[in-house]
Design goal:
The chain is an alpha+beta fold. It has a domain at about 60-140: 3-Layer(aba) Sandwich (Glutaredoxin). It is about 20% helix and about 15% strand. It has helices spanning about 45-50, 70-85, 135-140, and strands spanning about 60-65, 90-95, 115-120, 125. Strands 2-1-3-4 form a 4-stranded mixed beta sheet, covered by helices on one side. The longest helix is centred in the middle third of the chain and has 17 residues, at about 70-85.
Length: about 150
Amino acid sequence: MSGRGPLAPDATPGAAPEAVPDGALDRTVPPRLEPRAFGEDTPAEREAAAAGADAGTHTLRLYVAGHTPRSVAALTNLRRICEAHLAGRYTIEVIDLLEHPQLAAGDQILAVPTLVRHLPAPIKRVIGTLSDTDRVLVGLDLRPAG
């Protein structure tokens, strides 16, 4: 096979493949993932941002590994920072990778705790307990560096 899908058994190499009728395959093939640079938004994320997601609302995901002191500190610090700088203009989703390890791949999580800002675009990441408020604010583009 050429990697482009199934060919009829009598298909000629190099010829255009015949269409396979719906339901003819007895297995499900996962969709191909398009390669992207680290931190680059996917087309779906860019569409969501352009489709009218409220520019004033920050969509944040905090990836943790269980109920550890570092995880608790990161969530406490994140809530404090959000209330002080984004009052009412944010959503936080906490993802425990001990319960859902498969979710780490979607946001390319390599360490925990990690904060990922999905909206407003572009995606931003901050790793650690978020105890350095200035670093977090710069990392989330809420304050200019310097």
